[in-house]
Amino acid sequence: MLLADYHVHTGFSDDSTYPLRQVALDAIRLNLDEVCFTEHVDYGVKPEWDDPAGARFEDGSPVTNCPYEPYLAELDRVRDELGGQVALHAGLELGVQTTTIDQNRALMERLGERLDFVICSIHQVGNREFWNGDYQRDRTQDEIHRAYYEELLGVIERFDGYDVLGHLDLVRRYDLYGDYPFERVRDVVAEILRHVVADGKGIEVNTSGIRYGLGEFQPGRAVLELYRDLGGRIVTVGSDSHRPEHLGSYLRLAQRELAELGFEGIWTFRRHEGELHRF
User: Fold this and answer.
1) Is 278 exposed, middle or buried (0-12, 13-18, 19+ CB in 10 A)?
2) CA of 126: how far to CAs of 67, 99, 105, 136, in Å?
């Protein structure tokens, strides 16, 4: 079965130092067939790479969105050097908010034809980020989950410049209260998935849920079953790699779970055109 890691970050993302060329070399060593780079763009909390005014600094450098032109140029160079050994594709992971839709739409109008694949994720709500606990502060567990899914629904009702939704139940990773009953958000998740299916989009299975100690992928099995039952077919698999030890992790296990759930196969993308690879 094709091994394609469709969620990979490199040093062109603010939270990774993994060189793009080294990712490609490691992918060859791991016998991966395809890698899609999905560098971070998070309007509202990060400025553009070529206009970093107002950025916070980490280790002496401004934290910005992906430097698009250097990223795409480096990818072209590495493709020319190594592309015969592994397929390398250009993507972005957009951390979209209802307040940043216009910026994301403008970026896709500018760069979309140069990209193969785009993930739509929610990493912050109201410019309050999950990773540092700002979003969760002063919210009950119900409010943490409800606000997250309502924001995601609000985004996809107005924005279709993506190919798949990323780690749809990501908020679970940042919920310090513990497990949260899926039934409490099932209706809003179903509404999100109906939009995804109706718009001809897909979702990803993000294998990082295993390394973050959730005991399953993201989204979890309950969401995958709901997506299947609502007619969802398009599924990509990605490791959400930021470091060498993440690359390609649990891809076969994710494929096995998707097959058990009755999905036909996994999908890859070229210039936003999906291709099914059957199990």
Assistant:
1) exposed
2) 24, 8, 18, 12
CA distances from 3 to 31, 33, 226 (A): 8, 5, 25
In the block, residue with structure tokens 């919920």: 175
Does 70 sit behind a cis peptide bond, omega within 30 degrees of 0 on the bond before it? no
Give the chain's end-to-end CA distance (angstroms, integer): 7
pLDDT string in tens for the chain (279-residue length): 899 999 999 999 999 999 999 999 999 999 999 999 999 999 999 999 999 998 999 888 899 999 999 999 999 999 999 978 999 999 999 999 999 999 999 999 999 999 999 999 999 999 999 999 999 999 999 999 999 999 999 999 999 999 999 999 999 999 999 999 999 999 999 999 999 999 999 999 999 999 999 999 999 999 999 999 999 999 999 999 999 999 999 999 999 999 999 999 999 999 999 999 999
Name the pTM for this structure.
0.97
Give whole-number Cα distances, 170 to 127, 220, 231, in Å: 16, 10, 22
